[in-house]
Amino acid sequence: MNLKNNKMIKTVFASLLLLTISIVSAQTNEQYIVSSQTLNMRSGAGKQYEVITTLSQGDAVTLIEKSDNGWWYVDFEGTEGYVFSQLLKKDPYSGWKKTNYESGVTPECENVNPQYDFKLDNYLRINVGSGTDVVVKLMKKGYYGDECIRIVYVRSRDTYEIKNVPEGRYYLKIAYGKDYRQKIVDNQCYVKFMQNAQYEKGIEILDFNKIKQPNQRIGNEIYENWSVPSFELSLDVIVTKGTKPTFRSNDISEAEFNQ
């Protein structure tokens, strides 16, 4: 009797194991984007279920589980639910991590070692106009090659200051757009905007070297006097009629921006 019971237990355990394996094998990390103007995410596989949230065209989702009835279980920025699969298309940029940074944040995957000189009270103030976010690279000119010493993300309609810049001569690389993403390939980090992307390299040189001024006398003491340059930059891809852009630049490729 006991032997028979043991066999039954083993049979049930084997069935549960097979069931678990079949569920896991159905899961995937494939990326899809919404192809319709809007797409409802529901609590169950069908239109009769409650709408959890509504996605917009171009939103990216991660496929968790497929089903034969056309309703797929997906993840959208931490929210999981069911969407009708015919309103999705395969994301051609699968593998690019979608990230929503706040202004002033250094993108995590950038291969940049930020450099500061806290003895210098200087700054590069960046004013961003409407309609676009930007990523700004502060490039230091060097005898043996140029080096990116700071990189920041600044959102539309925000202002941010890159402070305590070491002495030297610099220029800027700037990426404009919406839907920022990043990806590591062969240990090199690449960044891109998926919508309205534009990449530029500044023409002007920003000279952050201190400038010697006439010495100052205070009482019987004479002190050296230096001016510390700072700069202000206004960025807007939309220039209104009658105004001139404040940032002179040349267009560059996405690949050159990522160098």
Structure explained in plain terms:
The protein is mainly beta and 259 residues long. The chain folds into 2 domains: 89 residues, Roll (SH3 type barrels); 159 residues, no CATH class. The protein has 2 helices and 19 strands. Strands 8, 10, 11, 13, 14, 15 and 19 form a 7-stranded antiparallel sheet that branches. It has a 5-stranded antiparallel sheet with strand order 6-5-4-1-7, with no helix packed on it. Strands 12-9-18 form a 3-stranded mixed sheet, with no helix packed on it. The longest helix is centred in the first third of the chain and has 24 residues. The termini are far apart.
SSE blueprint:
Elements: H1 2-25, E1 31-34, E2 38-42, E3 51-56, E4 60-65, E5 71-76, E6 79-84, E7 88-90, E8 97-98, E9 123-128, E10 133-140, E11 147-154, E12 159-163, E13 169-185, E14 188-202, E15 206-207, E16 211-218, E17 221-227, E18 231-235, E19 249-251, H2 254-257
Parallel strand pairs: 9-18
Antiparallel strand pairs: 1-4, 1-7, 2-3, 4-5, 5-6, 8-13, 9-12, 10-11, 10-13, 13-14, 13-15, 14-19, 16-17
Entry summary:
This protein is 11% helix and 47% strand. The protein contains two helices and 19 strands.
